[in-house]
Amino acid sequence: MATNTKEIKDRIDSVEKTKKITQAMKMVSASKFKRHLKQLGSIKEYGEGVGAIIASLSKRLLDDDLPELMTSNDSPQVAIVILSSDRGLCGGFNSNLFKYAQSALQSYSQVDVYVVGNKAQQFYKSKNVNIVDVRPNFQNASSVAEISDYMSGLIQGFKKGVYSKVFVIYNEFVSALASNQVMEQLLPIKLPDWDPTTISTSDFIYEPNKCSALSSLFERYVSYKMTRAILESITSEEGFRMAAMDSASNNAKEMIQELTLFYNRSRQAAITTELTEIVAGAESIS
Predict the structure, then answer these.
(1) For residues 91 and 244, is the Cβ–Cβ distance under 8 A?
(2) Residue 143 to residues 118, 147, 250: CA-CA distances in angstroms?
(3) Which of 55, 130, 199, 236 could share a disulfide with 179, CB 3.0–4.6 Å?
(4) What is the C-alpha separation between 37 and 29, in angstroms, rounded?
(5) Quick count: other Cβ atoms within 10 Å of Cβ 196?
(6) What are phi and psi of 89, to 5 degrees?
(7) How far apart are CA 56 and CA 61, in angstroms?
(8) 231 near 141, Cβ under 8 Å?
(9) In the chain, how long is the greatest CA-to-CA distance?
């Protein structure tokens, strides 16, 4: 029985250490979650400003002067970027995303998959999909230059007619406990307010010219949409991890309570057994 109580005590100590780790991870995730949530709020404000400019410009675009990034092509090939996490311990964050992505991939016969995040790389390396690019997740989602550089290859592929459409699949942030799996079209750009039958005759002055100015603006708009998708994904990931670590800490606490109760009962049983043996021995002597 003594050996049994020692094993229980060792297990309690082990769970205590695990609890400390999960609590520390929860605090780290909470700090990151707060920072990313603030960044997400800022980029949404930026997006509202850009969206207002795009909406105003859309009322001045004719069929014959549409930016290249708004013009469709007949290529049968599409590109899909899948945003996952680099690390695990974040509940159903990745599994929900992959389930959604698998269904989306089946909608197209010719797909080039661009994988972002180590978890997506591990998942798709054994799948029958055409992976053309793999990279770790963007740890610094505010790095405009890095994201613009990543998007330049996809933009050039669309301009050259390699891809007829470019999508991104990611976890859209809802709350720390929930997210929506979203497939968003990046290219060609869709302007919800654009109506060729109600074009304004007034226009802006463009420098150096309308074509190059709109091309630069729309490329930045595509990079913005990708940046927002990355921030949505990262914020959702940290929220899921924070919740998962909180759940793990609570489970560890409950396990410690159960093991402590079992430990005390085992000790009590051992003491009772020893006392019984002592009394029995004393009676046999007398």
Answers:
(1) yes
(2) 20, 6, 37
(3) 236
(4) 12
(5) 10
(6) 55, 40
(7) 10
(8) yes
(9) 119
Q: Are strands 165-175 and 78-83 parallel, antiparallel or unpaired?
A: parallel
Q: Which two tokens stand for residue 39?
A: 């960044």
Taking the C-alpha atoms of residue 259 and residue 8, their distance in angstroms, rounded to an integer, is: 7
Distance between CA atoms of residues 162 and 155, nearest Å: 10
Helices marked H in the chain: 2-58, 93-105, 118-124, 144-159, 210-285
Pair 8, 262: CB distance under 8 Å: yes
pLDDT digit string, tens, across residues 28-39:
999 999 999 999
The predicted model scores a pTM of 0.86
What is the tens place of the pLDDT at every residue in 246-264? 999 999 999 999 999 988 8
CB 155 within 8 A of CB 162: no
Q: Half-sphere exposure of residue 51, counting CA atoms within 13 Å on the CB side?
A: 10
Torsion of CA 95, 96, 97, 98, to 10 degrees: 50
Contact 176, 242 (CB under 8 A): yes
CA–CA gap between residue 59 and residue 167 (Å, rounded): 25
What are the angstrom distances between the C-alpha of 221 and each of 40, 115, 147, 200? 16, 21, 12, 22
Which one-letter amino acid corresponds to residue 219?
Answer: E
